[in-house]
Write a structure and sequence with these properties.
The protein is α+β, with helices and mostly antiparallel strands. The chain is built from nine helices and nine strands. The strands form three sheets. A five-stranded antiparallel β-sheet has the order 8-7-6-5-9, with no helix packed on it. The protein has a two-stranded antiparallel ribbon with strand order 1-2. This is BAR adaptor protein Hob1.
């Protein structure tokens, strides 16, 4: 904005406030007010037509490109490659689904042909809809500039008109007032002439523009509608004619998925590694020592896997060491090897593990005196918390149950073995308390 335009805007600002709050006399032309309302609708519909037609053409191309890239990605999944990166000749294609690979290749060819057949229709939308809409938008923008100028001329006219009325309403006029009235009359006459020119011109031009709207805008909407139908019919016809033996088009999506999946879900769930689950949360420090024994590390996660006595991978989806609701009891300090394992798994280095030296373990208790009868003692424990088996070989129990110990270690942070109610299995040692 130039300095001159800024000065004019500052002079018009008081009158703009008055006009907004209906203070003083405001010039109103009913014919122009109705024409401006119709012009706003034309402005909005033109922009909508341009934007929506552009988005439609882009969406069709984007959809087809996505289908092509998706098929190529699926094809890569079907073609795992094994070998050594240092020896390219050692790579061997291990084709696990030759039919799926061929189906993906055929589908890519079909979509590329479909994209080529739709290209003329999309180009027609660009030339017959988008470009004319852009040209109409340019005309509308120019008309909007003239409307703004007309509003400015109205503000100038209303300002001089209100000033003249105030001077004429004075009962006793001085020579200075008479001179001001004469000057204001000249300015008012000039402002009225400028306003009438813009106001009458716009009323005539807008009416002509509205007459052209019926011959221009409505046909564009109709043409766009039929072009969309052509695109839809082409897509439908091409997709209905797809004949790829790998796909059964007589089934719905869910049925076809279940048929292709077969027993692969059960086979995948039988792989121990897929049972590894984590929550991404750090494990409290007081339970990391025990994880160091089970996993060779003390990862700071809320859920983990452990090794049973037979060496198989065991899953804990419900963590027996979760402290959110019912915290298990604390345990005594472990050995130095446990702290080093915990340090290495939580991301710290061996130096930090060496700095944090464990406290000296208390001396072992004196051996208990043997029983006189020679009958071995049955050792029992009492459950402090409920525990639900999370893997085969676990022992479920409720708080307060008495469990017969089959085997255990001196560390309550390890898995023990016991019997309850005729069932035998493993359970976390810090969920129970030894009975004296």
């Amino acid at each position: 904005m130039s300095w001159k335009g800024f000065q004019k805007g500052a002079l018009r600002a008081p009158q703009q406030v008055k006009a907004r709050f209906n203070l003083g006399d405001v010039t109103k032309d009913a014919i122009f007010i109705d024409a401006e309302r119709r012009f706003q609708d034309l402005e909005k519909e033109t922009k909508k037509l341009h934007d929506e037609s552009t988005k439609y053409a882009q969406a069709i191309n984007g959809m087809l490109d996505h289908q092509i890239e998706f098929s190529k990605a699926t094809e890569e999944i079907y073609k795992p490659v094994s070998g050594r990166a240092s020896d390219p000749n050692s790579y061997v294609d291990d084709v696990g689904n030759a039919e799926g690979i061929r189906a993906c290749e055929e589908y890519v060819i079909i979509v590329e042909e479909l994209k080529a057949s739709l290209q003329p229709e999309l180009e027609l939308i660009e030339s017959r809809i988008v470009k004319p809409a852009e040209e109409l938008m340019d005309i509308v923008k120019n008309a909007r500039k003239w409307i703004v100028k007309r509003d400015h001329k109205q503000l100038d006219f209303d300002k001089e008109n209100n000033k003249m009325k105030k001077l004429q309403e004075k009962k006793e006029k001085t020579a200075k007032d008479e001179k001001a009235i004469w000057d204001t009359e000249n300015k008012l006459e000039a402002a009225k002439d400028d306003f009438d020119i813009f106001n009458n011109l716009l009323k005539d031009e807008l009416m002509r523009l509205f007459a052209m709207e019926k011959e221009f805008i409505l046909p564009l909407f109709q043409s766009f509608y039929y072009m969309q139908l052509n695109v839809f019919y082409t897509l439908h016809e091409k997709m209905q004619s797809i004949d790829i033996g790998y796909f059964n088009l007589t089934l719905n999506i869910e049925e076809a998925f279940e048929q292709k999946r077969g027993e692969i879900q059960q086979q995948a769930e039988a792989i121990p590694i897929v049972k590894f689950k984590t929550t991404g949360q750090r494990r409290p420090l007081k339970y990391q020592s025990r994880l160091g024994i089970e996993n060779g590390s003390a990862g700071g996660v809320g859920r983990t896997t452990s090794l049973s006595s037979s060496g198989s991978v065991r899953r804990l989806t419900q963590d027996p060491y979760d402290t959110s609701e019912k915290p298990p009891p604390p345990y005594t300090n472990g050995s130095q090897s446990l702290d080093i394992a915990r340090s290495s798994s939580t991301g710290s280095n061996w130096q930090s593990a060496a700095k944090t030296k464990p406290k000296a373990a208390p001396p072992p208790p004196k051996p208990k005196p043997g029983r006189l009868s020679g009958v071995p003692t049955v050792e029992t424990v009492t459950a402090l918390y409920d525990y639900e088996a999370q893997a085969e070989g676990d022992l479920s129990f409720s708080a307060g149950d008495t469990i017969e110990v089959v085997s255990r270690t001196d560390n309550p942070q390890e898995w023990w073995s016991g019997k309850v109610g005729g069932r035998q299995g493993q359970f976390p040692g810090n969920y129970v308390q030894l009975n004296s």
